[in-house]
Amino acid sequence: MGKNAKAGWMKHLTRLKPRDRTELLVLIGGIAILLLLVVFMKLASEVFEGETQSFDKKILLALRDPVDLSHPIGPRWMLSAALDITALGSATVLGLTVFAVAGFLLLQGLWRRALFVTAASLGGWFLNSALKQLFQRPRPDVVPHLREAMSMSFPSGHALTSAAVYLTLGALSMHIAQRRLTKVYCMTVAMIATALVGMSRLYLGVHYPTDVLAGWLLGLSWALLCWMIERSLERQAGLKRERAEAEARAKAEIKETKTNE
Q1: Is residue 188 one of the residues assigned to a domain?
Q2: Average pLDDT across the chain, whole number
Q3: Which of 78, 82, 123, 204 could be stapled to 74 by a disulfide with Cβ–Cβ 3.0 to 4.6 Å?
Q4: For 105-114, how does the pLDDT look when each residue is reduced to its tens digit (9 = 90+)?
Q5: Is residue 198 part of a domain?
Q6: pLDDT at 223 exceeding the cut of 80
Q7: Which tens digits make up the pLDDT trace of 163-219?
């Protein structure tokens, strides 16, 4: 019965007009954003009431050698890998990535999508900076830091901005890709990159687990919001194009009628 119901819903969705399908997806995205923000607000409340401190410390200590807390668990290459991976969430690497992608889109004549990627990325960085100043949570002092970190701790900027940038690029790639498998691949790669960046911050001891979780929640929310705005603008552009084409056809028919008379 469950499979039949699911198949029925899928069949119903495929029959929807593209405009109606977009409106449905935007509605679902809006609900998802509200849920993510509720979870974030609950998490932030627990963090600043000190309810998560014990959990945070246990996770960070579990990732270190109990004999020498300056040494992380695992083979030596894992530290080198974590340093490389965490750079994927740095402002330098993300900035170069956004610059390169936006430049490519502009050269392809896709100026609106280039503007979308740039605005979504800049918005993520601004959101991160504003929230760090708002919450003012110090960096963890449970274990020695294996990477220099100077800003505030909550939320994790690497987790937030990497989610905002990579998930936005993943959504854009999905929109451009033709095959369903390719679409799944694009978003999977974006999600893996986002997850690895966040986990590297824990391994290096520069963030509490709740910092990273908060960054993921906000980054995903921001990426979803930007996607919703982009889809809405695209739908409006599509409606304008349809109207223009309809008017052009109507004028052509009138002209043809007058010519025949």
Answers
A1: yes
A2: 83
A3: 78
A4: 888 888 888 8
A5: yes
A6: yes
A7: 999 999 998 888 888 888 998 999 999 999 999 999 999 999 999 999 999 999 999
